[in-house]
Design brief:
This protein has 187 residues and is α+β, with helices and mostly antiparallel strands. Helix content is 31%, strand content 26%. The protein has a four-stranded antiparallel beta sheet with strand order 1-2-3-4, with helices on both faces. The protein has a three-stranded antiparallel beta sheet with strand order 6-7-8, sandwiched between helices. The chain has a two-stranded antiparallel sheet with strand order 5-9. The protein is globular.
């Protein structure tokens, strides 16, 4: 049975988030934490790091929302991209973890409709480039890198793509372009 942790952000009112913690299927050392209320995802090397990362991510997002007079956005119970990870997919269909700088570079170069702000060395918040700055409910998605701010888990990439309705194939194409990978020529 998967573990569920509860994070209580420090603020004038208490907010309780249910978080599902489970091991990644193909690597039992990597734990994935998914907030069941808003679909945010964090990963970590081990249970404790994943738990600490999701608590830190949620705390940062709640503080950011409160400081800007906004309510923490809710998208879905669990992003559909995360539900799809349990389906059997071919090996070329699955995204992989990426280095944080590489991920940010791919997003900046290939997805001009999105922009991000670096909140900390291991943390970036994505939003639409043309989003109205006074929008009371802006569409944002946080990415927190694990392993001392160096790695972005593929679950977070799927969550970001799902949040902004970006086709996974578009990200695969951007990844291939970044690494100058081409598909084999059919004869």
């Amino acid at each position: 049975m998967p573990n569920v942790a509860q994070a209580e952000p420090q603020s004038s009112t208490t907010t309780i988030f249910r978080v599902l913690l489970e091991t990644r299927g193909n690597d039992p050392n990597i734990w994935v934490a998914t907030c069941l209320e808003n679909g945010y995802v964090a990963t970590g090397l081990g249970y404790d790091e994943a738990r600490d990362n999701i608590i830190d991510l949620l705390r940062t997002e709640v503080i950011y929302a409160n400081e800007n007079g906004r309510k923490l956005g809710t998208r879905a119970t669990i992003p559909s991209a995360l539900e799809q990870k349990w389906k059997i997919l071919g090996p070329s269909d699955e995204l992989c973890d990426l280095g944080f700088p590489t991920f940010l570079g791919i997003m900046a170069k290939h997805f001009p409709a999105l922009t991000y702000s670096r909140e900390r060395a291991n943390y970036a918040r994505f939003k639409l480039t043309n989003q109205n700055p006074v929008d009371p409910q802006p569409l944002t998605y946080p990415i927190q890198a694990r392993e001392q701010g160096t790695i972005v888990g593929y679950e977070q990439i799927y969550g970001l793509l799902d949040c902004f309705s970006i086709d996974v194939q578009d990200f695969r194409d951007a990844f291939n372009s970044h690494y100058k990978l081409t598909s084999p020529v059919e004869t």
